[in-house]
Design goal:
single chain; 132 residues; alpha+beta; two-stranded parallel sheet; 4 helices
């Protein structure tokens, strides 16, 4: 994050960052390239708004901190569906367990310990992009 805030010079290098695919279950390191000509960089992730160091140090470097608000029960339903669809869980029972024992606890923790967002966006169901 600090490197993204450095002034651009003729010697500025391409920065790399990891990507994450739920189907792969692990980050892919150096998968995203940020070139000196890029002016907008979007960083997504559960801990980007966490107000506890060291996460807060990165979050405070962001120009904008957008929070997409969703009712907790809707978030869990979407999460369970995604776990099954991407193979993170072998079936609905395992997906529900994983969501309740891990993901939702993390989500509640972040929501209770969140930096002030600069914008709050309400999540909506969009049938054009919703998975079956």
């Amino acid at each position: 994050m600090r490197s993204l805030r450095e002034p651009l010079t003729p010697d500025t290098l391409v920065l790399t960052a990891p990507s994450f695919d739920h189907a792969l279950k692990d980050p892919t390191y150096n998968d995203v390239a940020v070139h000196p000509h890029h002016r907008i960089v979007i960083i997504e992730g559960l801990y980007t708004l966490l107000s506890i160091p060291p996460w807060s140090e990165a979050g405070l470097l962001l120009d904008e901190r957008w929070y997409i608000h969703i009712e907790i029960d809707k978030a869990q339903k979407r999460l369970v569906k995604r776990h099954v669809a991407t193979g993170v869980a072998k079936d609905m029972e395992q997906a529900i367990w994983r969501a309740e024992e891990n993901d939702m606890q993390n989500g509640r923790f972040v929501m209770a310990n969140m930096l002030e967002p600069t914008m709050i966006i309400e999540s909506i169901e969009d049938p054009l992009i919703a998975s079956p």
